[in-house]
Specification:
Chain C: InterPro entries: BP-dependent_transpt_permease, MetI-like, MetI-like_sf. Chain C: Belongs to the binding-protein-dependent transport system permease family. Chain C: It is found in: Cell membrane. The structure holds 3 protein chains of 3 kinds. Chain A is α/β, with parallel strands linked by helices. Chain A has 16 helices and 19 strands. In chain A, strands 6-7-8-3-9-10 form a 6-stranded mixed β-sheet, sandwiched between helices. In chain A, strands 15-16-17-13-18 form a 5-stranded parallel β-sheet, with helices on both faces. A 4-stranded antiparallel β-sheet of chain A has the order 2-1-4-5. In chain A, a hairpin with a 2-residue loop joins β1 and β2. The longest helix of chain A has 18 residues. The N and C termini of chain A lie far apart (50 Å). Chain B is mainly α. Chain B folds into 2 domains: 126 residues, no CATH class; 169 residues, MetI-like (MetI-like fold, Orthogonal Bundle), CATH 1.10.3720. Helix content of chain B is 77%, strand content 0%. In chain B, α2 packs across α3, α5 packs antiparallel against α10 and α10 packs antiparallel against α12. The chains are: A alpha/beta, B mainly alpha, C mainly alpha. Chains B and C meet through α1, α7, α9, α10 and α11 of B and α1, α4, α5, α8 and α10 of C.
Amino acid sequence: MTIELLDVRVTHQGRALVDVPQLSLEPGRAVTLVGESGSGKSLLAHALMGSLPSSLQVQGLVSFGGERTPLQDAAARRKLWGHQLALLPQEPVLALDPTMRVDRQVAEGHPGFLRGRRGRLAALKEAGNRLAGLGLHGVQGAYPHTLSGGMAQRVAFAAATIGGAEVLIADEPSKGLDPVARDALAQLLSRHVEQGGSLLTITHDLDLARALDGELLVMHQAGIVEQGPARQVLAAPTHPWTRRLLEAEPGRWDPAWRNPAPETGAAVPLIEARGLAKAFGGRTLFSDLDVSISPGERLALTGPSGCGKTTLGGILLRLVDPDAGEVNHHAELAGGRLQKLYQDPAVAFPARVPISAGLRDVVRRHNVSPERVPLLMDRLRLGHSLLDRRPGEVSGGELQRLATIRAMLLNPLVVFADEPTSRLDLLTQQETVNCLMEQVAEQDAALVLVTHDVGLAAAVADRHLSLEEAVPVASGRDAIAPQGSR
Amino acid sequence: MTILSTPSPPPSHPAETRRDHSLTRAAGKVLARRAAQAVGVTLAVTITCFVIVQNLPGDIAFRIAAGRYGYDKVDASTAAEVRADVNLDAPAWQQLGGWILDALRLDFGTSLVTGASVTDELALHLTATLQLAAVALVLSVAGGLLLGLLAAQNRGGAVDRLTDAWVSLVRALPPFILGLVLIIVFSVQLGWVPAAGHGERGNIVLPAITLAVGLSGLFARVTRDAVAQVLESGHVHFARTKGLARHVVLARHVIRNAGVTLVSYIGVQVLILVEGVVVVESLFAWPGLGHALVHAVFWRDIPAMQATVLALALIVVVVSTLVDLAVLALDPRTREAQ
Amino acid sequence: MNITQQANGKAPDMPAPSSPTTLWGMSGPVRRRLSWTRAASAGLLAVLVLFALIGPLVWRQYAGQDLSQFLRPPSFAEPFGNDHLGRSVIARLAHATRLSLGLALLCVTTAGIAGVALGLLAAWRRGWVDQLLLGISEIFLALPALLIVLIFAALASGEMWTIYLGIALAQWVEYFRVVRARSLSVFASPAVEAANLLRLGPVHVLRRHLCPELAPVLLTMASLGMATAVLAMSTLSYVGVGLKPPTAELGLLITESLPFYYEAPWMVAAPIVVLLLLLSGLLGLRTQEVRR
């Protein structure tokens, strides 16, 4: 069954948020919609689904195998939910009922589930089979909070598809997933297409788009600016905006701040850790690990989610105590020459006071020349009016740059950046990392970057330390595979 | 509600059995913590009451004697008898130890006013109070749930605004004034129900309504907020897109999740309920713990006061324990947090 | 879903001011309505405070009996008439309002200072100090406030200090629990971790992190606590274990005038209305619900 959307317009108080003349989904073909946050791509998916918030107005037509209904008639599409039209939600951890065992959540989408005791048993059996088919043995009776993000994503996939819907809409499905889990997801979605389903994926993750292949649509400012086979568009983009988007991928960066010749560690290390070990929740994160950070070097800590990257960072900063081993800081680091950037900068600022107040405290306390703040604001391409806002009122990318300014006021010798851009889209990530690295290069500070994005790590760091998946304590296996500099 | 009952689970899951252990462990911790609280409150109340008795004006022996034999028969000899009997000449710490041991054995001695055994009277008061509290709780929970559910279904609608107004109104309405108005209107003016007392038909109506009105407002507000929050949650949206009808989502997902908040809220409510019981029983002469407590305070009948305060406090502890256990059963996340 | 997510203000990178995201969800209209209620409550309270401050100066004679004025109906000089002992009702009301507000303020200040100080201490020192205070607070949590006040009333019935101490002792635990919990989460927050890495010192943490986090909750709790204190005091007098006549107190004014509600309804209505206005003014000030 082919689905066609015609003249879709989503508006809010007269402002167009989506304006797409035509979009069609065909069985056996993946359609992927990429674009930056706020380009309207999610709204387009929800317009098709019939799940837009009521404050938005939608116009246009949708045709299911030739039968046309107006898009405003969301109720008509709601009747198709589950058995013809299914949605794979973003952030699967939030999409699963925390108080219900997962097999029941999968089974309830089965058409027979509400038809008597026998139907329910059949549905539960089918749910168990589907979960097992996704490699989820033995978690049927588990509750969602015990699952990893990737496992929750697979449970959500089973729950969304058990109703037998041909059309699957995936809304930012790779959000918060590490590369391994993302590849597994791409395989699942491709399998749905191979089995004759149609797929519409909304994402800002170009790697996911690449893996799904199929048709690619690039969305920018409410409209579609380029479309065509994914391979072709990604290899030879024609629209300037698509080119910009592709150039924002870390693999293609060619920044001025790159270290021309990484030093060879002759200097006295600023941070030196020996024999570190840490276990958490019955799992060994790492053991007998040595780490040292020399002045001016750029180290990336990589590894899948939950492998203990952030914990290791906390230990190196001496914010968390290791189970074994010791961490030594060079005397020069005293007095705040060791600074940290956080994954969510909004929680790293005092929430209820204007940003300027926090920066003023830094300036006063450390006798920084007051002109440095406006100077840095200009250097990091930030409007001065941002200072009067509270952290919650500034976008994530801008706030991360403000956090960079705050850290730089103390002329740090080591900057520790914990997934600083994992919540940002590609363009914002590039801008944010550029700003950070320009400062790092200018001040000749050392950088420790924690990330699960291997591409970003490669673009930024000179040396890599990769942690493996955490292992249960009992096995006692050495979980560390330090890799040399590239 | 058959939808909520789940069929026997398919073959055993390793994950499931592990979780169930965590439930037992968490429940054990709750019980231990609440038991410590019960012992703590018993000790605190007993010691306080002992101190008060020690500092009462006049000779305590005379007061006890008056309670036992009547005011006209009190003289130095009966007082001396009492003194020997209750061991009043022993050092204070010995007497306190005796008090505590007695309290742990639920023996609160004899009333300083009526001379009757406090423990025996306590049973009667407790029954009357539980009767009143149960009726009030059922009325308020039923009314509050209904209002809150309706309000949450259509936020900003007529029912929602009405609930909002109701909540604000009853919150600022002291129970004793509400009771007063109800007595004047329904008992004195209309003569529909008796104003006060116990044992007649209809006695329970006014006090129960007085209690229920105050509670229902808060319960409606909490229900509304909890249900509205769950309705906005990602998992309810997802459940809808699975193709489940609105009422199925309500029964399978909304009620249980909102229930976690609502059940915890009952723990707060029991405090309000106990305070309400004290006021309302005095107002309507309902012979429960609250009425007895105010009497005891008025006559400085410390043994009776100690017993009633402890009974009310232990009701709070018991209800809180049940609430904690119910939350553990409803929300698996809390089991690990314990 | 994307949409609800954005409503929480967690959109990854939206240009904040121009985006329509803030209009999703309920936050907008609700906040407006609440602030309207708060303004009205603040106005109402201002009037009552003025009455409590100036009233007793204008109508000084609140205890003087004059049986020739028995149940005199309201007039221009005596807006609420005279009571069964010929005393000026408005003078007694003014004194009762002053007493209620004054004592409530005293109770809340005492309980608030003690609770905040102990809560900060527990969150700061942790360890056995925290455990001890937490244990004590658990005992108080099992005792509804009115029970604590009643126990104190038994100690020395009818005296002001028992009511003051009883109410204060019943309320400190709420401040303690809330301040302790919030301080613990503030101390553990990345924002404070960042402040420590920036070597900003305890004054910064107190001023920029802790105070802004605690102030709105504490103000809400204080207005709720005052309402509770006003209510507790009048309830105690009403059931006969609070202050004793001839004190001018709201609960007593209601009890004393009840036998005459048929002949002089204004006399019953006046203290009830003042009590209701006081309570709705104090309750309407709250900015958020507080759970302990």
